[in-house]
Amino acid sequence: MSFVPAWELRAAFARALSGMYGTEVPAYTTLVEVSLGVNTDVAAGAEDAERLGSIARVTAERHGAIRVGSPAEMAQVARVFGAFGMYAVGFYDLRDAAKSSVPVVSTAFRPTEAEELARNPFRVFTSMLATDDRRFFDPELSAEINRFVDARELFGAELLELADAAIAAGGLDSGDAERLLELATAAFELSAEPVDHDWYRRLEKISAVAADIAGIGSTHINHLTPRVLDIDQLYDRMEQRGITMIDEIQGPPRWHGPDVLLRQTSFRALDEERTFRFADGAVGPGSLRVRFGEVEARGIALTPAGRDHYDALLTEVDRRLAADPDGPAKASVADQPDIRALSTPRQLTARQVWTEAMPATEQALDEAGMGWFSYAVAQDAPHVDAPQGGEGTRRSLSELVHAGVLERRPIVYEDFLPRSAAGIFQSNLAAEGERDATRDAEAYDLHRLSELIGAPIADPHGLYRAERAASLQQAAERLGTEITE
To answer: Residue 128 pairs with which residues in a beta bridge?
Structure first.
């Protein structure tokens, strides 16, 4: 038998989930087809189309999303995804990121090394129900939810054993690999088991997300997301196909400067036929609307200073919209021909704010210390004198970049934005749910979630910082000189 390393398992897992989800949600297949068409057209028409990733990587790229009900279930998720070389990165608190009731905290499982991301960057955004947050759940309901969740089994013993073996060996023999993929894919299929109607609707009054997590006896892929090089163009093409999209694109606006962080949108959640069990014991048909088709466009990762600046710009957008909600809509589209009709007042306002205050080039973003970049010795780099001792053994980074010895390469943002994720969730909910703001919120952060699930959660900035440092070390060794900041 041949050995299948973790990255090949990960790529096969992403393909298997994509095939399964496309069967369950046919509109997803349309989304993938349109994404491929947009990527092909953009790559053919722009010289720098692959600056944030090769067309092969972007076309194969997916991120999924699942939801679980307890730290114990999250800990099992960490084992399953660990088999595919995917590790917890980042902490996201969606509880206050949307007007709707979204009582979850989240992390994302993904590769953490640049080489592994280049091979296959599959990520799964994983949310956990915060049943101890009294703004959403009183003690009685919280206890009921916990009993329900504790009684179910999301991942069988065989799957977990194979996952542990894959983690220990960095992969599996082909026979075990095939079985792992079969079991892992099946674990995220939509269950045909009848849904307890009264229990589900009781949770749904508080939050549709809570009902999706704790109202049924299994988990499932909530959405599966391809990556696209022009998300505005994709939005237009999906609407032309007769597929209703949510009202706006989440994240930074479309503008003339460098793309940063993450832009996301989705088609609206569709009614899906499900079987319900009613209070009298009868079983009958019904429908739920919880799954949707998301798509994303990724930009440059921002440093902590860059994220602070980004957050400040969002605050300014909110301030301007509060003062004049319709002001941006008065601007003539004829004066701004690259803005499509789908642009909302928020996106138009954000575009104005970005134009006024965001660094307009990669160089400016880097020199302001706001973006993460790696550096490589240019192929046609001018000669650098061999070090002669003393100051000759050191060169400044800015000097080498400006001299054309080193070239700047943007580091792609591999993570998520809580406000955007909550915005996608909110846009696909039928009702806002219930939240008692007078009660105290339960405190969560990266460290607490890590302790609860018994697995480390990496800080995204630490990973980007390490990638930058490694590139500088490699460049210094090749040039035979120390590179100073």
So the answer is: 68, 105
pLDDT value at position 335? 47
Task: Return the closest-CA partner of residue 464 out of 369, 345, 334.
Answer: 369
Q: Please indicate, yes or no, if residue 366 is contained in any of the structural domains.
A: no
Closest CA to 263 of 277, 275, 249: 249
- Beta-carbon contacts of 362 under 8 Å, excluding residues fewer than 6 positions away, are 258, 300, 371, 373, 408, 410
Exposure b/e, 344-382, CB count within 10 A at least 16 = b: ebbbbbbbbbbeeebbeebeebbeeebbbbbbebbeebe
Q: What is the pLDDT of residue 52?
A: 83
SS3 133: coil
Handedness of CA 300, 303, 304, 309 (dihedral sign): negative
- Cβ neighbours for 344, distance < 8 A, ≥ 6 positions apart: 247, 248
Model pLDDT, residue 429: 60
| Residue 473 falls inside a structural domain | yes
Tokens of 36: 């491929």
Question: Is 419 within a domain?
Answer: yes
CATH number of domain containing 74? 3.10.180.80
- What pLDDT, on a 0 to 100 scale, did the predictor assign at position 426? 66
Judgement on whether residues 481 and 350 belong to the same structural domain of the protein: no
Per-residue pLDDT reduced to its tens digit, 411-458: 999 999 888 877 777 666 656 677 778 888 889 999 999 999 999 999
CB 273 within 8 A of CB 372: no
Rounded to whole angstroms, the Cα distance separating 94 from 276 reads 29
User: Mean pLDDT over all residues of the chain?
Assistant: 88
Nearest-angstrom CA–CA distance, 214 and 209:
9
Q: Which domain holds residue 344?
A: 302-360
Residues 9 and 70 occupy one common structural domain = yes
SS3 59: helix
- Total number of domains in the chain: 3
The CA distance from 97 to 250, in Å, is: 13
Q: Do 206 and 140 meet the contact criterion of CB atoms below 8 Å apart?
A: no
Q: Are strands 195-196 and 272-277 parallel, antiparallel or unpaired?
A: parallel
Predicted TM-score (pTM) of this structure: 0.91
Phi, psi (degrees; rounded to nearest 5) at 398? -60, -40
Looking at the structure, do residues 235 and 327 belong to the same domain, yes or no? no
* Same domain? 296 vs 306: no
